[in-house]
Write a structure and sequence with these properties.
The complex is a heterodimer of chains A (364) and B (326). Chain A is built from 16 helices and no strands. Chain A has helices at 2-36, 40-52, 55-80, 88-105, 111-140, 144-166, 190-195, 208-225, 227-237, 239-244, 249-265, 267-276, 287-297, 302-325, 333-347, 350-360. Chain B has 326 residues and is an all-alpha fold. Chain B starts with a helix and ends in a 21-residue tail after the last helix. Chain B has helices spanning 5-35, 43-61, 64-88, 93-116, 140-143, 147-157, 162-180, 182-192, 194-199, 204-230, 242-252, 257-276, 290-305; strands at residues 134-135, 160-161. Chain B has a single domain (5-305), classed as Orthogonal Bundle (ABC transporter involved in vitamin B12 uptake, BtuC). In chain B, α1 (5-35) crosses α7 (162-180), α1 runs antiparallel to α10 and α12 runs antiparallel to α13 (290-305). The chains are: A mainly alpha (364), B mainly alpha (326).
Chain lengths: 364, 326
């Protein structure tokens, strides 16, 4: 009896632990809301209502989720190769430059062609920005966490310079590029959702959602159903074993980081081609860092990542509504919840794991 | 009015000292943490927490010293959470630090809005008792009348906040603690080879926790400087990556106190010159984009880390949670 119970627990653990850890993060967030003098349950209700309660809210939720699917997948791919990519923010930003080049200078081509080129350019620029830290880690042994952070700052400075000096629309104060050619506007999903009777309102939900979901399926297939994915995971889990089996962990580090940077670089599809239709200052707005939370919460599994991206999309959308409804609560509260989710799901994942295993299993 | 080159250089150096102070304090904080084997990515969050705590306390109680006390306490509290997660729960150090940085970057403006209702910031510190203002040392005014060498005294040595002098004292003190005391030896040993220390009957967890808490104290002073000396109150993201820059300086200084000091001064100097040279064309080069100078410290650190200049020597056990062998 106890054995079947422990087997059942171990099977449920991958689903149970993230939910419990999320619960802890929400509990602490609730305490913060309570200490500010607002009702945490009412806040939760406002968040839920704001993110799923209307067609427009849902559209925004899914729009933000799209960003986080891309960056969450990016963090996860690097993770499976044994690397922690904190540089998604910079890779997404520089990837947006590639997307913008296509939107600004190749807009004369047919729309389908512009979109495919946009994907390729975003991926290429993102991958290029990830390549240097990856190369330094693989060949020179410089720690990738440090170098990717440095590259976030360097990327941010580079993009600011490009926007302020080179790409800025002439005769304009705000550092923005001119508008893309309308061939580079990703089609809205309003039509698709109206079939289901949902009115997306003003929300910018666009084709990038479907591209990100396709990417999630592709990454799942690549990691768990191909030889390449198997080798990548072996190289990440046990470099020594990989080397013994004739796999070069360094090569897979490089490949994984290129793939990771490419995924992060696709953020520009959703934000720029899908919504803003121009290159803007600091458009990733922290999505690269939210990707860390999304990947940790989704246990680095593409399906899990889609769900946790939905959760974070809802938090960001609903959090905006919350700040609007409860004037004592800042927009920044959402950032607190993100941070707490990373803390409980990522750094304190042993907090509940050991006691629960002790309760539910006979052997630890 | 045209200033002589001499005056310009003195003023640039004085600016360098002001910009370098939080970096130096933060780099020293990182020094203790990293040398004990705990990654110091949490500097940014601790500094930001202290900046908020000190500004809030100073705004409420009207005393900069109380601000310092609260700022340091907040930072130490964050350090305690960090060491609970990393040292005791063996959590991933990078993830824990990033998580806390993100949490604090949201929590500080959230509490600022809830407590003071002036946007996401604390009220401005207008009263002189609420800030660590610049101190004019004796005879500084007199020495100005003889610019050479009087300006060196009046601008470089005199005329800084008390925290600047504190930072200057803390560099040799930290070096002394790290290299000349038993505690310092243990900190360095636990960062290189925790097993050796464990087998000598010394608690690895205890030493690492102490090192991280010291890191909290120093980060707290750095954050207080930002909010109550360099600035006049808390504004969101006021650390603006200084914690990461300090870590870069520490790495640039090869995890050694005086070299890290040198790196902080170098980074601060480039920053000060950049501010001064904005839009000024230089002979042969033309106008240097300010963004290039902002990126320069990070570029230099990456090049140094790549081992093109010298071989970096990080603590061997850095980032690895210590599991006791049974």
């Amino acid at each position: 009896m106890s054995q079947s119970r422990s087997a059942l627990y171990l099977r449920l653990e991958p689903f149970l632990l993230p939910v419990l850890n999320l619960g802890l993060a929400l509990l602490v967030s609730g305490l913060i809301i309570f200490s500010i003098g607002e009702n945490p349950l009412k806040a939760l209700q406002v968040i839920f209502q704001g993110s799923f309660g209307s067609g427009e809210g849902l559209g925004y939720t899914l729009f933000y989720s799209t960003n986080y699917i891309f960056t969450g997948l990016a963090v996860a791919v690097a993770y499976h190769a044994g690397l922690f990519n904190i540089g998604c923010e910079g890779q997404a930003y520089v990837g947006g430059l590639g997307v913008s080049f296509v939107g600004l200078y190749l807009g004369g081509l047919p729309a389908w062609c512009v979109i495919i080129l946009g994907i390729l350019a975003g991926a290429l620029f993102g991958a290029a920005w990830a390549y240097v830290p990856a190369w330094l880690q693989a060949r020179k042994g410089s720690h990738i966490v440090i170098t990717t952070i440095m590259f976030n700052f360097i990327g941010s400075a580079l993009m600011t310079w490009l926007l302020v000096v080179v790409l800025i629309k002439p005769g304009q104060q705000a550092p923005e590029s001119r508008e893309f050619s309308n061939h580079a506007f990703l089609p809205s999903l309003k039509g698709l959702f109206s079939y289901a009777g949902i009115n997306l309102g003003q929300s910018p939900l666009n084709l990038a959602l479907l591209i990100s979901l396709t990417a999630a399926v592709a990454i799942w297939f690549l990691l768990w159903r191909t030889r390449f994915g198997y080798q990548l995971r072996v190289a990440g889990t046990s470099p020594a074993a990989a080397r013994y089996a004739g796999i070069s962990p360094e090569n897979f580090m490089l490949k994984a980081m290129l793939l990771s940077g490419a995924l992060a670089g696709c953020l520009g599809l959703n934000e720029l081609m899908g919504s803003q239709h121009r290159l803007t200052l600091d458009f990733p707005a922290g999505a690269g860092f939210i990707g860390i939370a999304v990947a940790l919460m989704g246990r680095n599994n593409p399906i899990g990542i889609c769900f946790s991206a939905l959760l974070f999309g809802a938090l960001v959308q609903g959090g905006g509504e919350l700040a609007f409804e409860m004037p004592h609560i800042s927009h920044a509260l959402v950032i607190v919840i993100q941070g707490l989710v990373i803390l409980f799901c990522g750094a304190l994942d042993q907090l509940l794991k050991k006691p629960l295993r002790r309760i539910f299993t006979t052997t630890v | 009015m045209t200033l002589s080159y001499y005056t310009v250089i003195i003023l640039l150096l004085a600016g360098t000292i002001r910009v370098a102070t939080p970096l130096i304090l933060s780099a020293l904080a990182g020094l203790f943490s990293e040398r004990s084997g705990v990654v110091a990515l949490g500097l940014e969050g601790m500094m930001l927490g202290a900046a908020f705590g000190s500004a809030a306390a100073s705004a409420i109680y009207g005393s900069a010293w109380l601000g310092l006390l609260v700022g340091v306490s907040v930072s130490v509290l964050i350090a305690a959470v960090l060491s609970f997660a990393c040292v005791f729960k063996k959590g991933n150090q990078v993830v824990a630090a990033i998580a806390l940085n993100i949490t604090i970057s949201g929590l500080a403006p959230t509490l600022a809005l809830a407590w003071f209702n002036q946007g996401n910031q604390t009220p401005g510190l207008t009263n002189s008792a609420q800030r660590f203002l610049e101190i004019t040392l004796p005879w500084a005014k007199v020495s100005r009348t003889h610019p050479f060498p009087g300006l060196i005294y009046s601008e470089l040595i005199s005329g800084h906040s008390v925290i600047v002098y504190l930072a200057a004292l803390l560099v040799p003190l930290s070096a002394f603690i790290l290299y000349k005391t038993r505690f310092g030896l243990r900190v360095r040993a636990v960062g290189e080879n925790p097993h050796a220390l464990d087998s000598a009957g010394i608690s690895v967890n205890k030493i690492r926790t102490q090192a991280v808490l010291i890191s909290g104290v120093l980060s707290g002073v750095a954050g207080t400087y930002l909010a109550t000396a360099a600035g006049a109150g808390f504004i969101p993201d006021m650390t603006a990556g200084k914690g990461y820059l300090a870590l870069a300086a520490l790495i640039f200084g090869n995890w050694k106190p005086y070299r890290a000091l040198g790196a902080c001064l170098l980074f601060a100097f480039t920053d000060t010159v950049a501010t001064r040279l904005q839009g000024v064309p230089l002979p042969l080069i033309g106008i240097i984009p300010v963004q290039f100078i902002i990126a320069l410290p990070y570029l230099m650190t990456v090049i140094l880390l790549a081992g093109f200049v010298a071989r970096p020597e990080p603590p061997k056990a850095i980032g690895v949670p210590y599991e006791k062998e049974n």
